[in-house]
């Protein structure tokens, strides 16, 4: 697909407000402060030459491809070759940005919908809900990225969807994917109905979307080796147990008839293998703040992968590169709207994993209704309006409680 040249009409980015927002979130950036008494450093800061892999991590919420930053100096054909194994489908439907909203250009702000699904072989393909729902916002400056997690138990008005025969109704928002996937709608239909549901709830239209299969996601982490995860509170896994010292899904472990030992994620920082990092990021039962703590853990995993991808040796090993490319092809399904994937990747070259800012809906506090379901607070809806206006940096500066405290 050729590069689109129509300019997107969008709200301007105010340097002073962006600077204030950056000052409000020092813990999200690399480097940290110097001890008192050290001489001040020059104000000008050289941007680190992060590999392209880490930049694409921001685009889909995880590592997608493997190639060095030198590819940016070459043709987009190099990027296209590296991303060729990733399936692309129509995941947005009517929730994609219109031309008036800038849907034909990548020059303005970019909004993507990231959906994590748990698809196991023993489950029907059309009986899957979206366990993770994340809105990725990149401002028009293309040098920062924000992740906003929507609680899976949020009550939502799900629109009518003719593709699957769904008549419309009120349910938990994660049910939108299931309702769209049934009766032949498939994962494309599931993603489309989810995107339409979020657009109806928040007003945000999307430039692209990604479905992340948790099973394939594990393979991507394994290809990276391990990731460093900090467990903030001990939690017993609701999904996995050890059998003969090997981790297994509880349902599979029961079938063995052997003794089972619970998987427990103990407090502290450590390097985790793919299965452990993924399992920890999916826990919500037993956590103090339930799904809100899980949101932070999932965002922490995404950032940990971005950091891991920048380490020396990860991209210089031909065997590891091949493993990463193969794993990415199995883990993701993408929709890049009216732009090609290489164009989108090239546009994201100014974004790095260290510039991921994690945000919490409702300030990380339960905001339920009479049905016992979560709802979006007025402050959260205001945050999504700031996304639409491309003024999220300014919003965060005046509403710091929406920031995730997890590094």
From TrEMBL:
> Where is composition skewed (Low complexity) in this entry?
10-27
Its family remark reads: Belongs to the LytR/CpsA/Psr (LCP) family.
Keyword Lipid metabolism present in the record's keywords: the answer is no
The UniProt record lists the keyword Methyltransferase: no
Q: Which domain of life is it from?
A: Bacteria
Q: InterPro entries this protein is in?
A: LytR/CpsA/Psr_CW_biosynth, LytR_CpsA_psr
Per the record, which residues fall in region Disordered? Answer: 1-50
Q: What are the UniProt keywords, alphabetically?
A: Membrane, Transmembrane, Transmembrane helix
Per the database record, which ranges form the Cell envelope-related transcriptional attenuator domain? Answer: 129-309
- Give TM segment ranges: 52-73
This one is known as Transcriptional attenuator, LytR family
């Amino acid at each position: 697909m050729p590069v689109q040249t129509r300019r997107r009409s969008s709200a301007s980015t105010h340097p002073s407000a962006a600077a204030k927002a950056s000052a409000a979130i020092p813990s999200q950036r690399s480097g940290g402060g110097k001890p008192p008494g050290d001489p001040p450093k020059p104000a000008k800061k050289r941007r680190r030459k992060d590999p392209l892999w880490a930049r694409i991590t921001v685009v889909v919420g995880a590592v997608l491809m493997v190639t060095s930053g030198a590819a940016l100096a070459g043709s987009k054909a190099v990027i296209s070759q590296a991303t060729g194994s990733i399936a692309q489908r129509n995941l947005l439907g009517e929730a994609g940005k219109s031309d008036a909203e800038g849907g034909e250009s990548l020059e303005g702000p970019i909004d993507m919908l990231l959906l994590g699904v748990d698809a196991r072989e023993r489950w029907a393909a059309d009986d899957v809900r979206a366990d993770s729902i994340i809105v990725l916002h990149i401002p028009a400056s293309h040098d920062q990225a924000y992740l906003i997690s929507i609680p899976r138990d949020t009550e939502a008005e799900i629109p009518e969807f003719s593709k699957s025969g769904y008549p419309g109704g009120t349910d938990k928002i994660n049910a939108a994917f299931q309702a769209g996937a049934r009766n032949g709608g498939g994962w494309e239909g599931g993603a489309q109905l989810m995107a339409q549901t979020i657009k109806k709830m928040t007003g945000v239209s999307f430039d692209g979307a990604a479905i992340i299969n948790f099973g394939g996601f594990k393979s991507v982490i394994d290809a990276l080796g391990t990731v460093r995860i900090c467990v903030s509170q001990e939690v017993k896994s609701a999904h996995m147990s050890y059998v003969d010292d090997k981790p297994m899904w509880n349902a599979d472990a029961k079938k063995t008839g052997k003794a089972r030992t619970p998987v427990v994620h103990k407090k502290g920082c450590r390097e985790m293998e793919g299965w452990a990092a993924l399992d920890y990021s999916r826990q919500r039962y037993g956590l103090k703040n339930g799904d809100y703590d899980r949101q932070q853990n999932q965002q922490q995993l995404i950032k940990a992968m971005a950091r891991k991808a920048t380490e020396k040796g990860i991209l210089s090993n031909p065997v590891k590169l091949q493993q990463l490319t193969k794993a990415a092809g199995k883990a993701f399904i993408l929709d890049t709207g009216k732009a090609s994937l290489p164009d989108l990747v090239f546009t994201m070259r100014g974004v790095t994993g260290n510039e991921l800012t994690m945000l919490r809906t409702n300030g990380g506090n339960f905001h339920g209704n009479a049905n016992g379901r979560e709802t979006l607070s007025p402050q959260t809806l205001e945050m999504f309006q700031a996304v639409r206006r491309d003024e999220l940096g300014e919003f965060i500066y005046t509403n710091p409680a929406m920031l995730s405290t997890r590094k």
